[in-house]
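Entry 14. Structure prediction run on the chain below.
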Amino acid sequence: MIEIFDNILPQDIEDFFANTHCDPFFPWYVQMSSAGEDAIFDYPVIDTPQFTHVAYFDNKSNSSITEDYIKIAQNLLGDDFELHRIKANLTTNHSGYTKDNYQPVHTDLDELNYYSILYYINDSDGDTLFFKDTDIIKRVTPKKGRCVIFNSNIPHAGSNPIITPFRMVVNIILKVDKQEKFIYNNLKGKQI
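Output returned:
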C-alpha cells in the first residue's frame, strides 16, 4: 500500500512546520550518511550527508515539537497506533547530483503491521521513489502539506533537490495492530 494525501493539516499548521524547521535555532544535526552499513552504492545511488532531527525514539520524546508531529499521524489514522520513531530530514543540493540519482534504497522496518508516513514540510524537487525489486513503481514529488503512507517494509529512497535549495520531510514510523483494511477505511476520502 502506497497512498498519497494533500492538505491533511490546516494551513496554519503547515506554515508552523515550515517556519519552525527554517528557524535558525531549530536543532538540526549532521548525519554523514543517509544509509546504514548494508546499503548498496551502485550507480545511480549517491549517498549524501543530511541534517536530521530525531523527535521520538526508544519510547521517549527528544523534541519540543513531538506532540505536533504526532498530530500528523492522528489526522490520518486517529489515535489507534503505537509510535516507533519520528525523525525529520533535511537534504540539500549536492554537486554532480542529477535527476537520475537517488539515495540508497532501504526499508524503514521489516516487521508486519508497521507503516511509515512521510510528511513534506516544503515544496521542493527531490522525489521519493518506491521500488519493487530494482524497478521504480511510484514517484512522489515533495509538496508542502503532502503525506505519503505506506507499509514500512516497502523499499524506497529519497533524492536530493537539484532546483530548490533544500528538501525537508518528516518520517513517522508506527505500528497499527488492526488489519490493513482499517487503514483503507480510515483514509477513505482523504486521497488526492
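The first helix runs from residue 11 to 22.
Filed with the rest of this week's runs.
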